[in-house]
Amino acid sequence: MEKNVLKVITDAMLEKKGQQVVSLDLSSIGTAISDYFVVCNADSTTAVAAIADNIIVRMEEKCGRKVLRMQGLENDFWIILDYGDIVVHVFLTQYREFYRLEDLWADAERVEYTDEPVVEQTVSEKRVKPKAASKVRASAKRVKNRDGE
Predict the structure, then answer these.
(1) Distance CA 48, CA 106 (A)
(2) How far apart are CA 90 and CA 99, in angstroms?
(3) How far, in Å, CA of 12 to CA of 14, rounded?
(4) What are the pLDDT digits (tens) for 81-138?
(5) Cα separation of 86 and 75, whole Å?
(6) pTM value > 0.85
(7) Which residues pair with 78 in a beta bridge?
(8) CA–CA separation, 16 and 9 (whole Å)
(9) Which domain covers residue 82, as residue numbers?
(10) Does residue 142 belong to any structural domain of this protein?
(11) Alpha-carbon distance 121 to 125, whole Å?
(12) Is 149 exposed, middle or buried (0-12, 13-18, 19+ CB in 10 A)?
């Protein structure tokens, strides 16, 4: 189940153009406060807030999980979403570079997510319209030379 939850979080980050999306498996580290950290960054506070909001919505929709604690919504340069076993960090780019959170947990297994998120399509969106038939008859398409032949 944790892998599915991680996918929901990372897809939510990528949907809103989160950059350098990484998960850190902290479960084997005895002093860790959670099993996973999921980290990304964005270049504006508006994008940071949008990513965090999207994660909250997707986690409720797809996993039925509500965030237990949130921090940083008042400034949008580092938002933390605590789901107990998973803690999500959404940074403004320069703050991620400054704090280097991943370096503090260098012993953790690291997975980078670079693919675009899988967007679910409804049946109607999957239908492809057939090409329209040409209204010009095949005989009319023949090109005649100057002599009319």
Answers:
(1) 24
(2) 12
(3) 6
(4) 999 999 999 999 999 999 999 999 998 999 999 866 555 544 444 444 444 444 444 4
(5) 22
(6) no
(7) 91
(8) 11
(9) 2-114
(10) no
(11) 6
(12) exposed
